[in-house]
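FORM 12-B: Structure-to-Sequence Request
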């Protein structure tokens, strides 16, 4: 029997050739979709791979619509960059002792609901639609830097590190009941209603919305802020109604407001010296663009 050569993506899989396509050699994980892709064998190889503690899934072509790793614990960094699948990657209830890397030209949706991520979560390049993080616990940085549209759904999630969502278009950002302990950085155009959902969220650290294009109703109703937080809107454009209802944070800088100007109440800087409880009780607000 002839000796098998390395898979084209050996640096990721460390597997040997299984199928030849033209001049390229592939293992069963990296073989592109087609009749030669043996789904049963793929499942067996993935099971062996996981049993050896492997977690590098870069450039893998998953033959199933929604590959599932639900409930699994990964002790090493997990890398799905460049992986391809048709629907939603199921990483619900999963524990990641180290980081998670997601994104790529064929990357679809991913569900990390109720996952616990002890290292950084990084989403790079592209994700075609939804990053779901409902009730997830992210103990480190959560950085989303994508070059197209993204929806982030993080109802009741806990972010111990800073959350950054930098995208060309932010389709939605749902942070109801979420806890953000080191602030939020947004970049990009936010165009859908009802806007960023902060209901009942607890927010510590600074809100950095510089250069954002906010075509929405920006409201912080019911959110609980740290009294020392600041809101930075330098260079931002707000096209719709902007309501700082119940917001004790200090607006530090404002960008251009296309419909009317925003004038924070003169007493607002004093809020920095108020104690947390009195700030929370305060329900001062101002409106623009009405
Ligand atoms: Zn391979």
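FORM 12-B RESPONSE
SEQUENCE OUT:
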């Amino acid at each position: 029997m002839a000796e098998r050569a390395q898979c084209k993506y050996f640096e990721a899989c460390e597997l040997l050739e299984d199928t030849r396509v033209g001049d390229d050699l592939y293992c069963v994980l990296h073989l592109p979709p087609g009749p030669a892709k043996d789904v049963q064998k793929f499942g067996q190889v993935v099971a062996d791979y996981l049993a050896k503690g492997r977690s590098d899934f870069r450039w893998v072509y998953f033959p199933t619509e929604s590959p599932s790793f639900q409930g699994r614990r990964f002790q090493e960094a997990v890398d799905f960059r460049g992986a391809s699948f048709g629907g939603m990657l199921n990483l619900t209830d999963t524990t990641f002792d180290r980081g998670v890397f997601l994104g790529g030209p064929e990357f679809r949706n991913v569900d990390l609901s109720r996952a616990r991520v002890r290292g950084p979560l990084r989403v790079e390049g592209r994700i075609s639609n939804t990053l779901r993080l409902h009730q997830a616990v992210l103990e480190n940085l959560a950085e989303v830097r994508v070059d197209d549209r993204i929806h982030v759904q993080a109802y009741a999630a806990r972010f111990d590190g800073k959350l950054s969502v930098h995208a060309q278009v932010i389709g939605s950002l749902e942070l109801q009941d979420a806890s953000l302990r080191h602030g939020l950085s947004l970049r990009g155009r936010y165009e859908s209603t009802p806007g960023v959902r902060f209901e009942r969220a607890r927010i510590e650290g600074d809100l950095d919305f510089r250069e954002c294009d906010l075509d929405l109703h920006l409201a912080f109703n019911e959110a609980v802020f740290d009294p020392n937080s600041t809101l930075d809107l330098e260079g931002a454009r707000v096209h719709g109604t902007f309501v700082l209802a119940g917001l004790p944070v200090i607006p530090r800088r404002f960008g251009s407001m296309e419909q009317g100007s925003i004038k924070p109440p003169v007493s607002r800087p004093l809020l920095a010296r108020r104690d947390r409880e009195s700030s929370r009780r305060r329900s001062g607000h101002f409106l623009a663009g009405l």
